[in-house]
């Protein structure tokens, strides 16, 4: 038994094995949220399709792992759930100079699979565009409503989040050591610089996309409950 415990501790960081109210409250919140989506579904309403129930639901585990391993999110849960690694070591923040680095080590090596989950994220993205366009063309002609605007904002945020990903940065800038040297003015250099600008706002875009997914879900639930919150902005028959 003791040997099994020692083996487990050699693979999984102690911060996952020891009591951690931040971690377990986060786990409980996730489980409760997913349970609510299953027990209280609002799949579609008046031409709108809930982002949690579109065809992307078939790849929810992959989409979840994409976000869980994202650099923007892993920084937050490493610091706030596990309190390590922090951006600086201070005893006031509960860290220690003698504590070994825990990022992307042992169990967390799985985070490096993020570069592969990105391809799944790219494959999922067109479904969000399809649902957004469907909310505009559902009645024939074009009907632009407040919900459609929210869905369009969601799609844009998700697209920019994926485009700003560190793995995408590697794809567009790989195999080149110096972009300011002989490649100056090169088209590849221009793409890399554009992606670098987005990459600086990666965390903001990650949270914006996540918040908008939840906002669209809550908006549709409000409509299904009879709340008069939708409005037609433009209609072309």
Structural account:
This protein is mainly α and 237 residues long. It has a domain at 42-82 and 109-164 and 201-236. Helices cover 58% and strands 5% of the residues. The strands form 2 sheets. The protein has a two-stranded antiparallel ribbon. The protein has a two-stranded antiparallel ribbon with strand order 3-4. Helix 4 (60-68) crosses helix 6. The chain is globular. The model has no long low-confidence stretch (mean pLDDT 79).
Give the tags:
237 residues, two-stranded antiparallel sheet, two-stranded antiparallel ribbon, 10 helices, 4 strands, 5% strand
Radius of gyration (CA) equals 22 Å
How far do the termini sit from each other? Answer: 72 Å
Stretches where pLDDT is under 50 for at least 5 consecutive residues are none
N-to-C SSE string, H for helix and E for strand? HHHEEHHHEHHHHE
Number of DSSP strands? Answer: 4
Count, helices: 10
Helix content range? 55-70%
State the strand order across the main sheet.
Answer: 1-2
What integer is the average pLDDT?
Answer: 79
Name the shape in a single word: globular
Class by alpha and beta content = mainly alpha
